[in-house]
Amino acid sequence: MTGGEARTTERLTLRVPADRDVAGYRALLMHPTIGVWLRPPPLAPFEPADGDAWLAEDTRHWERFGFGPWAVVERASGEYLGRVGLRRTEIGDRDGIEVLWAIGPARHGQGFAGEAAAAALALAADLEIDEVFAMILPANAASVRVAEKLRMERAGEVEHAGFDHLLFRAAPARARPRDRRPS
Ligand SMILES: CC(C)(COP(=O)(O)OP(=O)(O)OC[C@H]1O[C@@H](n2cnc3c(N)ncnc32)[C@H](O)[C@@H]1OP(=O)(O)O)[C@@H](O)C(=O)NCCC(=O)NCCS
Known about the structure:
This protein is α+β, with helices and mostly antiparallel strands. The protein has one domain (about 5-180): 3-Layer(aba) Sandwich (Aminopeptidase), CATH 3.40.630. About 35% of the residues lie in helices and about 30% in strands. It has six helices and eight strands. The strands form two sheets. It has a five-stranded antiparallel sheet, sandwiched between helices. A hairpin with a 5-residue loop joins β3 (about 70-75) and β4. The longest helix is centred in the N-terminal third of the chain and has 18 residues, at about 50-65. Bound molecules: coenzyme A. Coenzyme A binds near residues 103, 109, 111, 112 and 136.
């Protein structure tokens, strides 16, 4: 099974990102209140080309693994809201799968990150992924709150991209009893 079909939640469509999302990626990364968490100082801020590169990387990730970061689109308006989903990456000194979230600032505080991330953990359960991690800068209180609302457990700290991060862990496959998994 792969996760390539679009999923819907109460308010969202979650779909594989496509070329038409390039403006959304650029706007998301270029916004200072987003970029500061995804590429903190002293790293150089994002440039528009980074949006293109992240979109291309996410597309490749989907092609290679059958899952990846979704384009989050509001069902009612069709508006691109952000990037949430699963991604293979280094978790400290080993490979693992993270759940990531970023929502455009104009729509913060409406529960969209939590709604999309819960769907990502449900997809991880469908894919029988045992462990999913979130790596969050300690000062990123909104992101910590998202992890807490998802009932991810604290799993210590980890260095990632040169910064100390709080590590959160979920066990999607184990959270869903085997006899209730879709066949
Ligand atoms: C983190 C982020 C994705 C949250 O998106 P969102 O759609 O606003 O998230 P939600 O509405 O689902 O939940 C946010 C929660 O954080 C809370 N929150 C927001 N700002 C906060 C702050 N400064 N301190 C504490 N809690 C905060 C909200 O009140 C909400 O909790 P509640 O539902 O209990 O009220 C968004 O802020 C973002 O895109 N940030 C920049 C990118 C980023 O940091 N990504 C994560 C990298 S680890």
